[in-house]
Amino acid sequence: MKCRVCRGPAVIDLPRHNANFCVDHFLRYCRNQVERAIHDFSMLAPGERVLVAVSGGKDSLALWDLLGDLGWEADGLYVGLGLGDYSDVSGDHARRFAQERDLHLIEVDLRASYDFDIPTAAAVTRRVPCSACGLSKRHLFDAAAVDGGYDAMATGHNLDDEAAVLYGNVLRWQTAYLGRQRPVLPAGNGFPRKVKPLVRLTERETAAYCVLRGIDYQVEECPMAAGNRHLGYKEVLNEMERRSPGTKSSFYFGFVDRAVDRFADAAWSGGPSGGVGFDDGGADDGAAPGADPPRRALGPCTRCGAPAESEVCAFCRLVERAGGAEPVPVAPPRRRS
Amino acid sequence: MKVLLRNPRRELDVAGPMSITRLLQQLDLNRESVLVISDGTLVPGDATLDDDASIEIRPVISGGQGPVR
């Protein structure tokens, strides 16, 4: 197997591009894909300050590494979710990555700052853990980006993530979410600009990037998300990809290029706000896991000042319900068979 | 050959030599969903693994732990 560029020994094959790459040219390929995504979707301007949502996993660390390599000043934000050993390990990965590269990592811990964690919030609210997790992370990331004066917040969503969210939202015709599924959400209504620079890379590619760059990331997955519907969507799409390379890219970018605008009106007229974007056994609106909820806001939350549709924002309402509650241990979710 | 699988972590002994393609088929794994790693680097997809090889087949799909295979 020879590298498409230099004809040297290849280490990875990318069937969707009908190409094999050696180490150096694969890393260059990844940088080029991120650079192209940033350019094509006007994600970031030169010199802008970026806050990267860091989990300690492959995507967020690859993103942070790539943004720095491409010349952006990027700080990281890690949120401790209180998921036991999983959170301890993920935090260690994030901190080690930042220390080794002399990068600035901001840390917020739910238990220390708000007196609750995700397992407890899930038990108190009787909703899937992903609901409280998504709500908390979005709120804290948005707040940190705005309060810190960052020009944009970047997340490590990759092509597999976006294709799976799109697939789920199409299955249920979640038009409000379809209208918002873009690689960039502009700033407005008190929300920061949100960008997804990894959208042109698959999960296999971001993982390979980390391995070849020597980035030590957390391989283990969240214990509370085991067996969720999002994983099922990814499995289906990867089976299609295996049979017909390029399917995920055609599906997602075809939608972005030719269909997302058709749902623009629905994007502002439907769906709840405040973090219900996960659908794993009982979420309010059935949107696909990982979908971005509406960014409507009538005014600042009377508790924290964040944009809110009601007097008190959804996150503060969650803190009110779950803060101080008896801690609940981490346990895998029971799922419908 | 020793094959390390993750999520959950477990080790298998598989008789070699065997191609990567055949190994993934035998383990019912989709090559789009995994990386094959040895000595800290990627194993090319057209490689054949010797009987004394030691590799990791690492899942790359995030969003929760999938079914044990």
What is the secondary structure topology, with strand pairs?
The complex is a heterodimer of chains A (337) and B (69).
Chain A: E1 12-14, E2 19-21, H1 23-40, E3 49-54, H2 58-69, E4 73-80, H3 85-100, E5 105-109, H4 110-114, H5 118-125, H6 129-147, E6 152-154, H7 159-171, H8 175-178, E7 184-185, E8 193-195, H9 203-213, H10 229-243, H11 247-258, H12 264-267, E9 299-300, E10 307-308, H13 314-322
Parallel strand pairs in A: 3-4, 3-6, 4-5, 6-8
Antiparallel strand pairs in A: 1-2, 7-8, 9-10
Helix pairs in contact in A: 1-9, 2-9, 5-6, 5-13, 7-10, 7-11
Chain B: E1 2-5, E2 10-13, E3 18-19, H1 20-26, E4 34-38, E5 41-42, E6 48-49, E7 54-59
Parallel strand pairs in B: 1-7
Antiparallel strand pairs in B: 1-2, 3-6, 4-5, 4-7
Short précis:
Chain A contains 13 helices and 10 strands. Chain A is an alpha/beta fold and about 325 residues long.
Explain the overall architecture.
The complex is a heterodimer of chains A (337) and B (69). Helix content of chain A is 43%, strand content 11%. By secondary structure, chain A is α/β, with parallel strands linked by helices. Chain A has a single domain, classed as Rossmann fold (3-Layer(aba) Sandwich). In chain A, strands 5-4-3-6-8-7 form a six-stranded mixed β-sheet, with helices on both faces. A two-stranded antiparallel ribbon of chain A has the order 1-2. In chain A, helix 2 packs across helix 9 (203-213), helix 5 (118-125) crosses helix 6 and helix 5 packs across helix 13. Chain B has a five-stranded mixed β-sheet, with no helix packed on it. In chain B, a hairpin with a 2-residue loop joins strand 4 and strand 5 (41-42). The model of chain B has no long low-confidence stretch (mean pLDDT 89). The relative contact order of chain B is 0.32. Chain B has 69 residues and is mainly beta. Chain A binds chain B through residues 1, 9-13, 20, 23, 57-59, 160-161, 164, 202-204, 206-208, 211-212, 214, 219-228, 230-231, 234-235, 238-239, 241-242, 289-290, and chain B through 6-7, 30-35, 37, 40-46, 58-67.
